[in-house]
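Example 3.2
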Amino acid sequence: MKYFITGATGFIGERVAQHLVKAGHEVVALVRSPHKAKYLAALGVTIAEGDITVRSSMIAPMTGVDGVFHLAAWYKVGVKGKSPAQRINVEGTRNVLELMRDLQIPRGVYTSSLAVFSNTQRKMVDETYRFDGDHLSVYDRTKWEAHYEVAEPMMRAGLPLVIVQPGAVYGPGDKSMIAETFTQFLKGRLPMLPKETAFCWAHVDDVAQGHILAMEKGRPGQSYIIAGSCHTLEETFEIVAKIAGKKAPRIRVGPPVLRGMAALMGVVEKALPLPPSYTSESLRVTAGSTYLGDNSKARRELGYAPRPLEEGLRETIMHLMNELGMSG
């Protein structure tokens, strides 16, 4: 089979490409900067220079493929410049899916997120859940718009698309805020943890495999949560601390304090630049929020089977410690 991938130089997308090549498929990857895709090229991936915000750049590499994986997204939280979010997450998705329709590509998988559900208020929700309130971040809002106002209407109109929804994704090679937080802990620079904040954690290779299972087995027009087991940040860092042979941060901060800090930082950041993790947006996201989704449907229909959190974290933390020159 021949597959077209957007976001193949990203954390999840690169693993999807690796898994596809290993399985003997032909892969075409759309990248904005080909020099950043040398690893993919070495695997045998065909590199096509282009941008999802420029529809014409995708016509040639998408023509004649058997399936499309659309993973490219703007996913930053707490940064000052948010203007790319709408252009990439919403309009870029529209470009990819409309072109998939126009070229009559028979299968597609779009990477949404549990973030479209926003704070689930400690409830474990499934694919039928819908949130229609104010979102905690620009990322959450634009992914919601792409999911509900672009992808779902096109599926109802007959587009043979499957949506997958990861939660918190971790693993070796991660460059996100998750990996940065693990690194700060290992360096002894993480003094506190938020109470009650919880995510559903899945190893990047399991999430990549979830994408491929969705392409091969997913029912067109359906969404599948491909998150892993759900744990609070406190529980997660107790596991990390055990693996690293360190003590978890002793200071735990409750949601009311973090919400108060978020309001304060909302004033401060108008006058002074702040690190992303201390902005009002980041503090809102971690103020007791829970991004929880039930993966039962993906397990049942796709055969999705993410590894236990401790198993995946052990590989991840040992990799980070090795990079930092720490003995494990």
